Amino acid sequence: MGTRTTAETTAEPEMAKERAGRVGFVQVAISLQTVATFFQAATAGLLLTSVHGELLHGVGARVMYGASMLYVLAAILAWRPGGGSPRPVLYATGFLVLASAQVLLGIARVASLHVPLGVLMFGLSVLALAREYFTRPAGRGGRVSR
């Protein structure tokens, strides 16, 4: 550990402010996933009332699954080269596993499991979104809440 110059110590708070004000790839990915999951809940209701509900729900399923894969990619990119925590990678991977099960249950038309799993997934996505937006970077070592 060497000594720090005055320029290095005064530049760190400025860099932290700049990082805190930016919306990162992980935040965009988790936001897209959450919106897509909410869209799925809305179109599930349309399945009962509209002839277009099934088409919208099917398209939304593909978007939500793609958003889940994007979240995994963003979490990996934030973890490895960015030096962040590996925990979001586990969250994103777990969500992708749940999304895969959700797709299989939807194709098999097992609504008794498909609907509660969808509610669980939306809740988990909102929690991950809140965690991502209400924590700030603490440098390369992890995250610190505000």
Layout of secondary structure:
Blueprint: H1 6-21, H2 25-49, H3 53-79, H4 87-107, H5 111-133, E1 135-137, E2 143-145
Antiparallel strand pairs: 1-2
Helix pairs in contact: 2-3, 2-5, 3-4, 4-5
Spatial separation of the terminal alpha carbons? 28 Å
The assigned structural class equals mainly alpha
Shape annotation: elongated
The count of DSSP E runs of length 2 or more, i.e. the number of strands, is 2
The count of helical stretches stands at 5
Which residues form runs of ≥5 with pLDDT under 50?
14-21
Question: What labels would you give this structure?
Answer:
about 150 residues; mainly alpha; two-stranded antiparallel sheet; about 75% helix
Give an overview in words.
The chain is mainly alpha-helical and 146 residues long. The protein has five helices and two strands. The chain has helices spanning 6-21, 25-49, 53-79, 87-107, 111-133, and strands at 135-137, 143-145. It has a two-stranded antiparallel ribbon. Helix 2 packs antiparallel against helix 3. It is elongated. The chain starts with 5 loop residues before the first helix and ends with a strand.
